TrEMBL record:
SMART domains: PKS_ER (SM00829). Residues 20-327 form the Enoyl reductase (ER) domain. This is YhdH/YhfP family quinone oxidoreductase. It comes from Candidatus Thalassospirochaeta sargassi. SUPFAM superfamilies: GroES-like (SSF50129), NAD(P)-binding Rossmann-fold domains (SSF51735). One of its GO terms (molecular function) is acryloyl-CoA reductase (NADPH) activity.
Length: 333
């Protein structure tokens, strides 16, 4: 296998410009790892777009193959826990960041990064979820430990994005009322179809009063953007409510008093899917494969080939993508 060629989307640094193209590589060029996996599907995440555009906080050295998600079949294994032909999911850790990622026909990774595909989940479905679905699943799990459906609405920011849209669909299936925040007025129908009960425009939510506390309207929240949106969410949570946060695309800074936390008992929960322990990872994936799998899952994605990645990355960086984009590695352009 070492001399076998495979196809990969490779980003090169050329005079401070970052250019991605389909390249032929050899398997022996991959980093060391106990598992060699033939990739069937990957997915596009914001971190992939950053890696492909030269963000050194994500990827330090180029040429590089992004793709923080992969679903495929084990070709060879040095770990007895895995056998040839096992279907596996590999997400997060260092995959696609400084280790060559899932935008390729093969990956080679440490076996501790992989989990066996749950029986009720296909490889395509696993990548419709991907890291976004795992992050949404962790957020829902932590939130449902503290907030029950009868206690009120859950507000979700970044609602048309991967984490936001999947969070809405899962919460809806679990019987929660959901309020969606979006900057895209034209996507109201899409959000209602996902399961949102109410939609608030981002500009209106950002324009709320600057008071330390706002009217308590929501029992809980899943925030994916940070900044002013997260500030206003926290200030709008009811007594003993909870908020999960997993992103900072709007801002990494918060301008808050402690009043929501000490006067209303609000809990702020950070969500990190990258380094989630495997035992917790398996628990979330099993829920995503069964009780939490949205009925609309197979209606909420766009499937592309490796050749289409550049265009989708550009749209993602402009904030013009909705839902999930998966890459069928074997699909012809």
């Amino acid at each position: 296998m070492k001399n076998k060629e495979y196809k990969a989307y490779v980003v090169n640094e050329e005079e401070h410009n970052y250019i991605g193209k389909i390249t032929k590589k050899k398997i022996d060029s991959l980093q060391e790892g106990e598992l060699l996996v033939k990739v069937y599907y990957s997915s596009l995440n914001y971190k992939d777009a950053l890696s492909a555009s030269g963000n050194k906080g994500v990827t330090k050295e180029y040429p590089h193959t992004p793709g923080i998600d992969a679903a495929g079949v084990v070709v060879s294994s040095k770990d007895k826990s895995f056998s040839i032909d096992d279907k596996v999911i590999v997400t997060s850790y260092d995959l696609g960041m400084n280790t060559n990622g899932g935008f390729a026909e093969y990956i080679q990774v440490p076996s501790k990064w992989a989990l066996k595909l749950p029986e009720k989940l296909s490889m395509k479905e696993a990548m419709i979820f991907g890291t976004a679905g795992l992050t949404a699943g962790i957020s829902v799990l932590r939130l449902t430990e503290l907030v029950k459906p009868e206690e009120g609405s859950i507000i979700v920011s970044g609602a048309t994005g991967g984490v936001g849209s999947l969070s809405i669909a899962i919460l809806n299936k679990l019987g929660y009322s959901v309020t969606a925040i979006t900057g895209k007025e034209i996507e109201e129908k899409y959000l209602l179809e996902l399961g949102a009960n109410e939609i608030i425009l981002r500009k209106d939510f950002e324009g709320l009063d600057k008071k330390p506390l706002l009217k308590p309207l929501y029992a809980g929240a899943i925030d994916t953007v940070g900044g002013l949106i997260l500030e206003n969410i926290i200030k709008s949570i009811k007594q003993n409510g909870a908020v999960t946060c997993c992103g900072n695309v709007a801002s990494a800074k918060l301008d808050l008093t402690v009043f929501p936390f000490i006067l209303r008992g609000v809990t702020l929960i950070g969500v990190d899917s990258q380094n989630l322990p495997m035992i917790s990872r398996e628990k979330v994936w099993e829920k995503l494969a069964s009780d939490w799998k949205p009925l609309s899952l197979l209606d909420s994605y766009d499937e592309i080939s490796l050749d289409d990645i550049d265009q989708k990355i550009s749209l993602m960086l402009q904030g013009k993508l909705k839902g999930r984009t998966i890459i069928n590695v074997n699909k012809k352009a």
